[in-house]
């Protein structure tokens, strides 16, 4: 199995060079960018995907590896249901190369308030015909081998699944190439090229690519790139710490989470573990600009955030990161090929403690590796998926808010049809770019 996560030390598989012209350039080699390119190629378009570092080098190889319908925002849920069906077909094509297993996802209640929240979300599960069900405390204990923790109940979706991010997304990139996509790693897009007020191409560090359409799927870097092009939206990034345990006896084959810790079984016999909600946030100029948009989230859940004074040099919202640059010289995207933050080991230590307390027969898990990723997030915890009216030819697909790995194939299919001018099959109103400027109330939906 490939070492995790993917980083700048990972060998370049797609060195280029890029073509002089194509129909669509996709910026960003995460799961959303890869699957958008995949579906665009299936629609007969000539596609080039430019990745400044490595395919899946950032959050797409650093996430928990959950493929869940459970707990989704109602606006995301129909796309996620489609995404799970796509994962099933991908598993048939790739087999164990993506590590897909339909093993279910379980949320564990720490309080009766949690139970009430789960019961409220059941209305959305029923409306969409999901196999989600509530669980009693005894049922939870019966599914988790050796559990000592006294959870008062839970919610469980058997059809939810898991995958191995660090092997899945590179495998999907190979599938996209087999469908005709040109991928170029270590090739930052510095700027858009425009003619007559619309997209006419992109300027990369390896030269210009003429095209009529560009999809911005740059994850934590998207808002920095867009701001330089005059397109503003309040995307920020939070640091999420994750670890992989050594192989250990199976307590549950799927994924589960409570307020203190989360875990997912891996193919190598270990578990991926992470805090249930805790994350770190670096204060920077974009954070202060976007502060009013994030007030509702902060009021509801500020205790789960550890605030840090400043982002490390080169990060998207670092104080020293330029907001303007020349297309003729190096951009911020070349100065940091892969965003590879250090994990918060104190947070990981608390996760180990919580896991050991919940499963005393196993004890405090030994770690094989620990890492962190920067999650691109939005104030209402749902993405932007939209054509940019002020700049024809530009489409934005970003701000997946920690949901990108599982929903990525569904988002890719939707974005491809949006770009191609086809019916997308879903209501994208919730994800429109204009919600930040049209006076709409910005608030998270009833998700878990």
CATH class: Alpha Beta
Counting DSSP E segments of at least 2 residues, the number of strands comes to 21
How many domains? The number is 1
Cα Rg: 21 Å
Instruction: Give the low-confidence spans.
Output: none
Proper CATH architecture = 3-Layer(bba) Sandwich
The coarse overall form would be globular
Strand neighbour order, sheet with most strands: 5-6-4-14-15-16-13-19
Residues in helix, %: 25-40%
State the end-to-end distance: 32 Å
The description of the largest β-sheet is: 8 strands, mixed
Mean pLDDT comes to 96
Give the count of helical stretches: 11
- What is the strand content? 15-25%
Assign the CATH topology: FAD/NAD(P)-binding domain
Which structural class is indicated by helix and strand composition?
Answer: alpha/beta
Oligomer: single chain
Q: Which superfamily, in CATH terms, is the homologous superfamily?
A: FAD/NAD(P)-binding domain
